[in-house]
UniProtKB/TrEMBL annotation:
Keywords: Signal
Stretch forming the signal peptide: 1-22
Species assigned in the record: Marinobacter salinisoli
Keyword NAD: no
Residue intervals of the Rap1a immunity protein domain: 26-121
InterPro entries reported in the protein's UniProt record: Rap1a
Name used for this protein in its record: Rap1a immunity protein domain-containing protein
Length: 124
């Protein structure tokens, strides 16, 4: 499943402002980008650095959710069961998770853990 994430992240990186690539592969950057996104969604100016792009946040989270859907469509068990909620709700879960658990080296894994915690699948 992780093989599916690599091309998606590469596309998300290509669509963002130029910043050192190493910074993109940390959850600290994701946290800043997602906080900026929540600011923009609520009508405020972004509170973080300008290179913390809202598009990066949305791209990473949407990519994880869409990859989970594709994985289920190919017969795998879901990692999370995300209901039909708006982006701001999903972003809020990611921001809260990162603030509670601290940074990780991989933003994709952080999103998977955050959304799996917020939207666990019923096992039965």
């Amino acid at each position: 499943m992780y093989k599916l994430f690599s091309p998606i992240i590469a596309v998300a990186l290509a669509a963002t402002s130029p910043v050192a690539l190493a910074e993109y592969f940390t959850s600290n950057h994701l946290l800043g980008a997602c906080q900026n996104t929540l600011d923009v969604f609520s009508g405020k100016s972004p509170s973080g650095p300008q290179n913390y792009s809202p598009q990066y946040c949305v791209g990473v989270i949407d990519s994880v959710v869409n990859t989970n859907v594709l994985s289920v469509m190919t017969g795998n068990k879901p990692l999370m069961c995300v209901p039909d909620v708006d982006r701001a709700t999903k972003i809020g879960h990611v921001v809260r998770y990162l603030r509670k658990n601290g940074p990780t080296s991989d933003p994709v894994t952080a999103v998977v853990f955050a959304l799996s915690e917020a939207y666990p699948c019923k096992r039965g």
